[in-house]
Design a protein that fits this description.
- Putative odorant or sperm cell receptor.
- It is found in: Cell membrane.
- Keywords: Cell membrane, G-protein coupled receptor, Membrane, Olfaction, Receptor, Sensory transduction, Transducer, Transmembrane, Transmembrane helix.
- This is Olfactory receptor family 13 subfamily G member 1.
- This protein is an all-alpha fold.
- The chain has a single domain, classed as Rhopdopsin 7-helix transmembrane proteins.
- It has ten helices and three strands, in the order βααβαααβααααα.
- Strands 2-1-3 form a three-stranded mixed beta sheet.
- Helix 7 runs antiparallel to helix 8.
- The protein is globular and about 65 Å long.
- It starts with 7 loop residues before the first strand and ends with a helix.
């Protein structure tokens, strides 16, 4: 049971330099708007176009929703701390932010693996794709993603709730993240560190390995394509996906694989921004907007709005 005497935390934000605050406010506001509008456009386009009701786009829809939740749980509060001197966040709100962030983190990692598997089946077993990726399989994969994400979030949030926070209450970060909260705890955090380490090995490293294996089979299949144009297009798609996936997993693994005593929050803020802010903004561009079917779906949405 939580024995904390701290009722609120103070979030220091991305930087303490006043001359950088305005510039960063504009940058993060633009990032949030691009991520929010881009992912919302994907959600609307997929829901409204029956031609996009296929496994690949259903997983893209899920990824877009996760990215909206991830950025919305972090950026609005972060922008608020840049605008005002009121940097406080209640204990309850901090725990809620932590829960939704860790949920979206787990969901995104499993979705990347699921999407890589879907592309593996589509390219390596094209004639059996509809049979292998039937509606029941899609529901099962999304269900597994949700169970893993919720379990991951409940475990970490629950373990944080068991800790005692007796002061100081200053979070040297731009949101309620696990490492800075562990550094503020007055009680032992060994169990928390072990579970973070276990989650990093199983979720981050495990999912990244499975994703790379899927793309390894995909690349092997691409090499058997006879036309140079076909190879070029397939490699272009795979390479862009792998860049985004690597950009997401590398900082996640780096952040959570270390004990709390070794964190450097000034450096870690920039690293954390890669997977909390940059990747959700890049996902719509890399996974969707370069796709002709998605472009057609988005054009139909704009055409409907004009009328």
């Amino acid at each position: 049971m939580n024995k904390s005497i701290v009722t609120e935390f103070l979030i220091l934000g991305f930087t303490q330099k006043p001359e950088l605050q305005r510039a960063l406010f504009i940058v993060f506001l633009l990032i949030y708007l691009v991520a929010l509008l881009g992912n919302a456009l994907i959600v609307i386009a997929i829901i409204c176009n029956t031609t996009l009701h296929t496994p690949m786009y259903v997983f893209l829809l899920a990824l877009a929703i996760v990215d909206i939740i991830c950025t919305t749980s972090i950026i609005p509060k972060m922008l608020g701390t840049m605008l005002t001197t009121g940097r406080s966040i209640s204990y309850e709100s901090c725990m809620s932010q932590l829960f939704f962030f860790t949920w979206s983190l787990g969901a995104e990692m499993v979705l990347f693996t699921t999407m890589a598997y879907d592309r593996y089946v589509a390219i390596c077993f094209p004639l059996r794709y509809r049979t292998m990726m039937n509606p029941h399989m899609c529901v099962a994969l999304l269900g597994i993603t949700m169970v893993i994400a919720v379990t991951n979030s409940w475990v970490h949030t629950g373990l944080i709730l068991r800790l005692t926070f007796c002061g100081p209450n200053i979070i040297d970060h731009f949101f309620c993240e696990i490492p800075p909260l562990l550094s503020l705890s007055c009680s032992p955090v060994r169990i928390n560190e072990v579970m973070v380490y276990v989650a990093d090995i199983t979720l981050a490293i495990g999912d990244f390995t499975l994703t790379c294996i899927s793309y390894g089979f995909i690349i092997a299949a691409i090499l058997r394509i006879h036309t140079a144009e076909g190879k070029r297009k397939a490699f272009s798609t795979c390479s862009s996906h792998l860049i985004v996936v690597s950009l997401y997993y590398s900082p996640v693994i780096y952040t959570y694989i270390r004990p709390a005593s070794s964190y450097s929050f000034e450096r870690d803020k920039v690293i954390t921004a890669l997977y909390t802010l940059v990747t959700p903004t890049l996902n719509p561009i890399v996974y969707s907007f370069r796709n002709k079917e998605m472009q057609t779906g988005i054009q139909k949405v704009f055409a409907f709005l004009r009328h």
